[in-house]
Design goal:
about 425 residues
Length: about 425
């Protein structure tokens, strides 16, 4: 993956930022690709597993979403631990643990084991994404965080591009070794996370001061630039302590906005393969290829939107318009009568939701520092990710996500429109420059 096209800021040389981006962003993207794949591959397992185990759409939707309950419970303490122990050790622990649980998903035998393992997977992965967002604040000045966060978050869309065809193909391994295809899917997509966790010890550098892959001058340039950036922001309305951040209405407002974004994002990822299969009637392999198309559009859109947000210093309307586009796409999906229309509507929805993420997290980083950054980012992510529970579950309760009466997808679209309205009517994310 190419590094971001960084323009030289006033405090850090372009050469140093490019070097940091080339070193960290591709590896971080790879890690999150694995995390996201293990989180959402249940959407392809659904094409086979629910029929094998006689599970209803409501059961599947609840199990897909209960992941975020475990995630919610352990998110804040996990990020506070990372802030103290360093990313290399704690991210490694997270990845090894979730990789083991992800492989254990092949042992599901009924709804209760399905619920339990998805809950454990959420607990195991808790802290990974906000930990990575926090980690970016250790290396990049504020005015570059929308594009770097967007580049990092492209891994979720890339997981859809790469993972959709692979997951569809793995389902065709049914019968090999006495296992069903969905069991092979969980086993073979969970194992790489364990190996990548071990690699974290060797590759992730906790702080710029310990980066032996930078020379003395580069380390000094980066340290001075980050210190100047922090000093410049210290005079504004920012929080250093977590308790102070909890008393700020902006944290709760941002959590509500992120709730709507995750409501939409996981409504898409959890149900898109089944919607496409029901509309098209195609086999699992072809469904996997078609499901990759909206993610390709999302990657392009989120990188362009993230760069434009950083270039203009504007966050608010980049978030609001993106959320609105996502909502419109999901409102259209239930009315699509053919495969091409459904893919186009899903592409608009994915482009909108994913594009909002980079500017959103840039806003969060602009008023949180120190332990407030560690705890505040985790709090926003954990509260917001509860939308990842309700989105899949509500669509599951609709029982017919591809039909005209697909109330679930309509409500997911409405949630994104509400998120757009919240941002548009608030003062959070208005134009700012570092």
């Amino acid at each position: 993956m190419n590094s971001p096209n960084i323009v030289e800021p006033s405090h850090v040389s372009a050469h140093v930022l490019d070097k940091v981006a080339r070193r960290l962003i591709p590896f971080m993207c790879f890690l999150y690709l694995l995390a996201y794949l293990d989180r959402v591959n249940v959407s392809f397992a659904n094409l086979q597993m629910t029929a094998d185990l006689h599970l209803s759409d409501a059961v599947y939707g609840f199990a897909a979403g209960v992941f975020f309950v475990g995630y919610f419970l352990f998110e804040v303490p996990s990020n506070l631990i990372l802030h103290r122990t360093g990313a290399s050790k704690w991210i490694a622990r997270i990845m090894i643990t979730w990789g083991i649980v992800a492989m254990a998903m092949m042992l599901v035998r009924g709804k209760w084991s399905f619920y339990g393992l998805r809950l454990l997977l959420g607990m195991a992965e808790a802290g990974f994404f906000p930990g990575m967002v926090l980690y970016l604040t250790y290396w990049f000045p504020r005015r570059y965080r929308a594009r770097t966060t967007a580049l990092f978050f492209t891994s979720t869309a890339i997981a859809g591009i790469v993972g959709s065809p692979i997951s569809g193909a793995l389902l065709n391994l049914s019968g090999l070794g006495g296992l069903r295809g969905w069991q092979w899917l969980f086993l073979l997509e969970g194992a790489p996370s364990v190996l990548a966790g071990v690699a974290c010890f060797l590759f992730l550098t906790d702080r710029p001061t310990s980066a032996n892959w930078l020379d003395d001058g580069e380390r000094q340039s980066l340290a001075d630039g980050l210190a100047a950036d922090e000093a410049a922001s210290a005079g504004g309305n920012h929080h250093v302590h977590f308790v102070e951040a909890l008393a700020d209405a902006r944290l709760w407002l941002l959590s509500a906005v992120y709730f709507t974004l995750m409501f939409g994002l996981y409504g898409i990822t959890t149900w898109m393969p089944k919607v496409i299969k029901l509309i098209s009637g195609y086999g699992n392999g072809r469904v996997g290829l078609l499901a990759a198309i909206p993610y390709c559009v999302a990657v392009l859109a989120m990188v362009l939107v993230g760069r434009h947000s950083d270039k203009t210093g504007e966050r608010r309307w980049h978030i609001a318009v993106s959320a609105l586009a996502g909502g419109i796409g999901l409102l259209v999906v239930p009315h699509c009568q053919n495969t091409a229309g459904a893919i186009a509507a899903f592409a608009l929805a994915a482009a909108g939701v994913w594009s909002a993420v980079g500017p959103f997290w840039a806003v969060c980083g602009e008023f949180l520092q120190g332990s407030a950054s560690a705890g505040g980012i985790a709090a926003i992510n954990s509260l917001g990710n509860l939308g990842g529970f309700f989105g899949p579950y509500i669509v599951g309760l609709s029982r017919s996500p591809a039909g005209k009466s697909a109330d679930g997808l309509v409500w997911v679209g409405v949630a994104l429109v509400i998120g757009c309205a919240i941002v548009a009517m608030s003062s959070v994310g208005r134009r700012s420059r570092a």
